Amino acid sequence: MKLNEIRDNKGARQSRVRVGRGIGSGLGKTAGRGQKGAKARSGVSINGFEGGQMPLHMRLPKRGFNNIFARDYAEVNIGAVQKAIDAGKLNIKGTLDHDALKAAGLARGGKDGVRLLGKGELKAKLNLKVAGVSKGAREAVEKAGGSIELIERKNPAELAAAKKGKVREKRLADQAAAKAEA
After folding, report:
1. Rounded to the nearest 5 degrees, what angle is found at the Cα of 82, between the Cα atoms of 119 and 90?
2. Helix (H/G/I), strand (E/B), else coil: 128
3. Are the C-beta atoms of 81 and 106 separated by less than 8 Å?
4. Sheet of 132-133: strands edge to edge?
5. Strands 114-117 and 74-77
6. Phi-psi region of 71 (alpha: psi -120 to 50; beta: other; left: phi over 0)
7. Bridge-based pairing state of the strands 132-133 and 127-130
8. Tens of pLDDT along 127-155?
9. Do strands 114-117 and 132-133 pair parallel, antiparallel, or not at all (unpaired)?
10. Per-residue DSSP letters for 37-106?
């Protein structure tokens, strides 16, 4: 056997169907799409269409909801923090915040900050600055001689209401200015 004799097995590669290439091919003229109608046109989108009957995805009941004010916390256990300290990934001098935990690979995501949870054991004395802490985690940190500072978070509903008021005031001021010019 030589390199120039290597071939795929029979039937391993199948050439694509070339439609609209003359009457002799069997797929000329209408290219296997038949005559007229939605399926003969390009850009047809009938996925899930059931001939006018109410489609399955519309017959099934709706469940649940998405809370637009839900907080997104990165959850970090104190056992994982201790493990990172032992491995030398975390420097315990100074205050440990979201950025420090993220750099150590402990906090993933969490646009609203870090929530400290009490799974595991903590031996090191830490100063933490987090958005939330469980009762067990607070006890473990204080038992080890550390301290926890909570970041004050504003309620998103109140922020939205305040923004709405400001937008309305600006619109009214613009209307009054336009009226004064006219």
Report:
1. 135
2. strand
3. yes
4. 74-77, 114-117, 132-133
5. parallel
6. beta
7. unpaired
8. 999 999 999 999 999 998 988 989 887 77
9. parallel
10. SGGGSTT---TT-BTTBPPHHHHSPP-----TT----EEEEHHHHHHHHHTT-S--SSEE-HHHHHHTT-
